[in-house]
Amino acid sequence: MKKILVTGGLGFIGSHTVVELQNAGFNVLIIDNLSNSRIEALEQIKSITSVKPDFYNIDIRSKEALKSFFDTEKVDGIIHFAALKSVGESVQKPQEYFENNVDGLVNLLAEIKNRNLNNLIFSSSCTVYGQADELPITENAPLKPAESPYGETKQIGEKIINESCLSNNLKAIALRYFNPIGAHKSAKIGELPLGIPQNLIPYVTQTAAGIREQLSVFGDDYPTKDGTAVRDYIHVVDLAKAHISALKRLINKSNKTNFEVFNIGTGKGTSVLEIIKTFEKVTNQKLNYKIVERRSGDITSAYADTTLANKELNWKTEKTLDQALLSAWKWQQKQ
């Protein structure tokens, strides 16, 4: 049984990916510092899969803690999620984002090199494209100057990994996510940020639940069909399964180059107002929202061309926007 390390494995995407890894027969180890996740997710993973992954409370910024972990554990692959992830927050706290997202990755790559490890999946983002010239966005789209420090940390992360692949013969895949939403069908794991949500869907669900008084829609003067920003919203379980496909590609040596990138999305753009209307339709809840000024760091529109991932990873999305929003609401109701 292959042993896989998942950094940030108790977070939103990480926990869903751990479940899919275990369902696929992998032995999973989790590193997480619980800065934006909860230890309860560990028991929830066990209740879904009947297997409790080994957990290490480690901050990847600590070289000593990482060294100690790799002194005791030999792994066959690594899926690297551990990072700060809010576009808006990164504009306010750029130094924290570079320290977490870049320095942490460098520490991890040093251990990978020193121990001759391989098979790295990197949690990247569509923010590396900035505001793309053409939609849908293909992997060949130029990487524009980032609109936020968060996006810049993902660009830098890809560059560092690519250089490591060239110099150390590392095999790696960067998955450029679009906007993951939703929750596991069991409603035992989902997106539950600590503090005020930085992403749209948890703010939507918390507003519907009465936890937040009002949802702010950042801008209605974008050049889009209804004036609100457009994104590609993908069900988190579909996204998690893409990691399994990418990992198997590396383990089976099916990769075509040492460093590959794939867009992971649905290929469909949805505006913020469309999200609100769809949520109201599938949940029968009315949302209290108001239009406010645009948020710094936000782009107008982004949705994926997923042709490459469909073909090379033999992966495609299976779940609908309705299903994703309903699952997010069912998860919220259990909190």
UniProtKB/TrEMBL annotation:
Keywords: Carbohydrate metabolism, Isomerase, NAD. Pathway: Carbohydrate metabolism; galactose metabolism. Residues 5-324 form the NAD(P)-binding domain. It catalyses: UDP-alpha-D-glucose = UDP-alpha-D-galactose. GO terms for molecular function: UDP-glucose 4-epimerase activity. Its cofactor is NAD(+). The keyword Transport does not apply. InterPro entries: NAD(P)-bd_dom (IPR016040), NAD(P)-bd_dom_sf (IPR036291), UDP_G4E (IPR005886). SUPFAM superfamilies: NAD(P)-binding Rossmann-fold domains. GO terms for cellular component: cytosol. The keyword Zinc does not apply. Its EC number is 5.1.3.2. GO terms for biological process: galactose metabolic process. Homodimer. Belongs to the NAD(P)-dependent epimerase/dehydratase family. This is UDP-glucose 4-epimerase. It comes from Tenacibaculum todarodis. The lineage of its organism: Bacteria, Pseudomonadati, Bacteroidota, Flavobacteriia, Flavobacteriales.
